[in-house]
Amino acid sequence: MNQRLSAHSADAVIIGAGHAGLSTSYYLTQMGLQHVVLEQGRTAESWRTRRWDSFTLITPNRWCRLPGFPYAGDNPDGFMKRHEIVSYLDTYASSFGAPVENGIQVTSVHQDARGTGYRVETSKGVYQAPVVVVATGFSELPKIPGWSTQLPSDVAQVHSSNYRNPQTLPPGAVLVVGSAQSGCQIAEELHESGRRVYLCVGSAGRAVMRYRGQTGWQVPMERLERTVDQLPSPRAKFAGNPHGSGTLGGHTINLHQFARDGITLLGRFQEAQGDRLSFAPDLKENLAHADKVAADFKRDVDAYIERAGLDTPPPDANNTDDYEGDDGYRQPEVLELDLRSAGIQTVVWAMGFARDYRWIHLPITDDDGYPLQQRGVTAYPGLYFMGLRYQYKAKSDLFYGVGEDAAFVAGEIAKLVSGERQV
């Protein structure tokens, strides 16, 4: 034990001051439970420093409804930019006096010897509490394949969380690896800046942002209410988010349009051997999957409109922002590429993040590294998670739905703390 660490106590310690941690803090504050929110940086730190300059939410502003703080601006159909997200969360924390302590890194969490509480070791002391809420986000470690070390040393490598804008990259062409939201949005920005772009396409679907005259069909269709047990398999919750964008008022990103505009589409990145890169022969398969996801969505919207008897524009090309071409299928499939011949000077890894909970000294993850929990509640009394993807529903990690889980977890905490006080 480090005797230099000072002792703190509270009813609960929340780790992370993002939208999940703050939503939980809101309810604990309403209940009068003494707690502290520990943040290694500043409130909304990941939104400040792990998103690129032009980043926007892909969900409309009207979906931003944190507990007690729904969006009240004059652009409900718009999409918040990065600095607006930070401002929204800063203002939210101030609105109820969230007890956030910034600049405190949590290094470990241990269950105490009696099994009735937790010891939270941090960079600025030890916190003792009967309750710990882990609200650090769905994933933490940038995912970069091991064979990235085989790339030439003079080729810059940047993870999407460290990408800022095209001007910060070396001159030359860019290879973007990953075609979920981040990869496609970054590829689009690089192309529009005049860069030659190569994009490795994975299995992410296509999000049709505007169809039959409006956005946000997922809410009235209750798609975000789907629970984790309704997924085809437990691992389905790890699928890449369908590609779309909140820029320019929100628009669909279509890989066939990328091909038409001059972006070179590639299959999955397989390996690197010096200047030689190899790719899987699965480009057309991945394009077909993205097309199917979009087509199925449109079909489901059409069926919903018919059932509900809604008066909307017809389902034709004039009432969707989804490109109707098939250019991607007509691009020659490239299985090998020479970095020098292609002029590639930068690789942007947009493969997402890996889960890392090794700092919690309890067996609380499954074989995939995902926390073992039911709607945020673990088998260890007083240990909870918040803000996980598909923690309970499809909306659990979104500004739109995190409050529902926060209310549930806060209620469980209140029952636990009340029971302990009666002992």
What does this structure look like?
There is one protein chain. The chain is α/β, with parallel strands linked by helices. The chain has two domains: 202 residues, 3-Layer(bba) Sandwich (FAD/NAD(P)-binding domain); 208 residues, FAD/NAD(P)-binding domain. It contains nine helices and 23 strands. Strands 6-3-2-10-23 form a five-stranded parallel β-sheet, covered by helices on one side. A five-stranded parallel β-sheet has the order 12-21-13-14-17. The chain has a four-stranded mixed β-sheet with strand order 1-9-8-7, with no helix packed on it. α1 packs across α9. The protein starts with 6 loop residues before the first strand and ends with a helix. The N terminus is likely disordered.
